[in-house]
Amino acid sequence: MTDVTAQPAFAQPSEPHEPSHIGPRLRAQREQLGLSLRELARRIGVSASLISQIERDKVNPSVSTLYSLVRELGLGMGDLFSADDARLSAPAAASAHSPLVTPDARAVINLESGVTWERLTPHADPGVEFLRVVYDVGSESCPEHSLVRHGGKEYGYVISGRLGVQVGFERYELGPGDSISFDSSSPHRLATVGDRPAEAIWVVTGRQSDGRRLQSSSGGT
C-alpha cells in the first residue's frame, strides 16, 4: 500500500488549554495500589516529576502517557471521564439519566498539546468509547518514533480539518467525510495535518478486553 501523505509541518498551538481534571483520580488509584511516584514512573518510562504534575493537574498528559497510566493502574477510560462528571452543571448532570447527551453535558478530558476528548454517551460504557475528538494545530497522540498499541478496534470519521493517521508502516491523510478503521493492536499514531484543527468522531471497542499492558513501538514498527 502506498504512503498517501507527506510528513506534516506542525505549527504550535496558540492558546493554553484547560486542565484535564483527572489528576486526583489517578493519584487515588496509585495510592490504593500502594505505588510510589518513582515506581509508577519507572514502570511507564517517564519521570516522577511528570506524574506528580499530572496528578496535581499542573500538566495535561499526552495521549500515549495517559494510555500507559490507565493500563498500569488498572483503570478504564470511563473511570477518568467519570472524574469529570462531578464538574458538570446541574442540568447537565440531570441529563445523565437520559440517553440524550447535549454539548453542555459532555464529560471532557483535555490532553497535552491541545487534544480534547468529549464523551458522547451519558455515562461510561465498558465495551465502547464513543467520542468527539479535536486535535488542535500541532497536536499528536504520540511522538513519531514511539507509536502506541492496545487492545480493541478503532473507527474514525473526520468532520473538519485534516487528520494524519499512521497504522504500522502505512500513513493516511483524512479530510472531511473520510473514515478509517483499524485493529488497535497495530502500532498507530494520530496527528493534525496543516494549519487548522482536526475534528472527528472516534469509536474504540474492546479496549477493556486487553489483558496486556500498553506497549510503545519505537521506530514506527
Provide an overview of this structure.
The protein is an alpha+beta fold and 221 residues long. It has helices at 23-32, 37-44, 48-55, 63-73, 77-85, 90-94; strands spanning 108-111, 115-119, 128-135, 146-149, 153-160, 163-167, 170-174, 179-183, 188-192, 198-205, 215-218. The strands form three sheets. A six-stranded antiparallel sheet has the order 1-2-3-10-5-8, covered by helices on one side. The radius of gyration is 17 Å and the shape is globular. The protein starts with 22 loop residues before the first helix and ends with a strand. The model is unreliable at 1-14 and 211-221 (pLDDT under 50).
Short recap of the structure:
The longest helix has 11 residues, at 63-73. Helix 2 packs across helix 3 (48-55). This protein has helices at residues 23-32, 37-44, 48-55, 63-73, 77-85, 90-94; strands spanning 108-111, 115-119, 128-135, 146-149, 153-160, 163-167, 170-174, 179-183, 188-192, 198-205, 215-218.
DSSP helix fraction: 10-25%
End-to-end C-alpha gap? 16 Å
- Mean pLDDT, as a whole number? 83
Cα gyration radius (Å): 17 Å
Which short descriptors sum up this protein?
221 residues; 23% helix; single chain; three-stranded antiparallel beta sheet; disordered N terminus; alpha+beta
Topology:
Blueprint: H1 23-32, H2 37-44, H3 48-55, H4 63-73, H5 77-85, H6 90-94, E1 108-111, E2 115-119, E3 128-135, E4 146-149, E5 153-160, E6 163-167, E7 170-174, E8 179-183, E9 188-192, E10 198-205, E11 215-218
Antiparallel strand pairs: 1-2, 2-3, 3-10, 4-11, 5-8, 5-10, 6-7, 6-9
Helix pairs in contact: 2-3
